[in-house]
Write a structure and sequence with these properties.
The chain is of the alpha/beta class. The protein is built from 19 helices and 18 strands.
Amino acid sequence: MIILSNLSKAYGPKTLFSQVSLRLQRGEKLGLVGPNGAGKTTLFSIILGALEADGGKVEREKGRTIGYLPQESAPTEEETVIELATAISPALSEIQKTIRCHPQPEDPIRIQALEEFGELEGFTLEARAKKILSGLAFQEEDFAKTARTLSGGWIMRAHLARLLVMEPDLLMLDEPTNHLDLETLGWFQNQLKRYSGAILTISHDRAFLNGICDGIVEIGHGKLHRYQGNYDRFLTQRAEREAQHLAAYRNQQREIAHHEDFIRRFRAKASKASQAQARIKQLEKMERIPAPEADAETISFRFPQPERSGQRVATLTEVKQAYGDHVVYENLNLEVEKAERIVLVGPNGAGKSTLLKILAEQVPIESGERELGHQVSVGYFSQQRVDLLNLENSVLDEAMEKVKSQVHTQDVRGMLGTFLFRGDDVFKKVKVLSGGEKSRLALVKLLLSPPNLMLLDEPTTHLDMPSIDAVIQALKDYTGTLIFVSHDLHFIRALAKRTIRIESGKSTDFPGDYDYYLWKSGSASEKGGLVEGLRDARPTEHSTGPGKNKAVSAKERRRINAESQKKARQERNKMEQRVARLEKEILSLEEEQTEVNELLADPESYNDPEKGKVLNEKAARIARRLKERNYEWEIEAGKLGELQNKKTT
């Protein structure tokens, strides 16, 4: 369908990629991954014909259609949401424009346009578009709204609906999950699983890539590498490839050093001169294996820890919250204790962000009580937080504004680098930053001066995978209380220890992590997907009332904690045995590797070419197994460390 042959692209002295090739077949679903700035979006632009490559060519199969969703700011005019969702071709768009410009029912031009619209199956498309828009969390009353009056995220959803209605042969999606809540994402992921066309997507969402991809293409260091399987399988295969490459490189370097030593010792000796010349020619003809590329430096940071709070952090009692006639909550009860890690889940519009605002005292409540505990300080992160930034400050000055005295400038710059403000970027004025950059800066400010109750609304939007991992690790070390909303399942699974589902004006408490919630709520499907479509999140007349959303009792909580502790002990014992087995196997492999390396270092091993070949293959095999076992040990030892930390706390 699409063939890329020897493509190259550079901007000034920076080469994004050089002589890369890729073949995308019909029906394949590929994820394009790599660090920010590696050239993912540039490669998309070249495939679409919006940008010229410096070299190479792109071949597209004739008659095949391509649908493209950009990361930001898809265009809109005066069309309604339903018109945008059904504008799948220029012809239909023109007809819709004609209908819109001639609103009178008896207008002959309008009548003719409606007939043409019907001939092009426009009314059938409209029914399908409404179903898809509903799946993307639009309400029926939204269909007739002018699209440009909506927020950017909803405009992107409308364009996404248009692509799903269009059903092109190839869907090209640039960060499609950025504007989707968790349950809409579950619906969307299921649509893509069933999609018959090909998909090429850029995404930083691991769970999304695991859910839909049958192949991963990594771009970095000027090259493309293709892997079979989903993202988790890609990580394993990449580790294997890197281990094999490293072993082959080291073996060749030993061989080169051996030849060079022979040449140096015998080049001037008459009886050995011809052999030395032969080895010189052998080295000249040898195809050199390039040195392994240095991995990107592991990103990590620690932010200052907050003051200790009391055991009870926040309490909501019989809270009612409404926006005009729209009642969001009625008789809402919630108790939050120190050091809890709570994720809020539920359909779009259910009130997750509103609950964060209630806890942050960002909105007044109509009735009920909202009480914070002893010495509780609240920090709230939302997209609107960017309005509090000083536009005239530099990025660095804004980040340093309220940091504690023990935080040094270099530490602040390191954290800014984690959030993709690198080099001279820290000296930019805040006013020239994009919306995503301002959002990242606001998150940096919160983490540099953290409260003991942190409320985060979609904190991973606009972050790449290494940055998300760095935030996860920092929040694992955070000693305060965390309540958050996120559509990133990797982020949720790494942090959440208690799950609260918000729907139809009530909260349901699940005293466990996200997978526990899926199990107890009956929503679990393939690897943690959602089997249910979206439901209307707005409360109905009979959906709320006294006693319908009471917090779990203290007795029930103690019983559940006792069961959890018993399960944790069993899990810890199994993990200790697993780590011990891996350590024993690693030790054995290291001893075996030492023996083989000693044989490879012996020049006599190369007198018999077959023996040398066997030794090299054995060395590569041992290196690969050692890399795999060390990787497994790091994962299992990390899990064991977490379990042991839980035991001590």
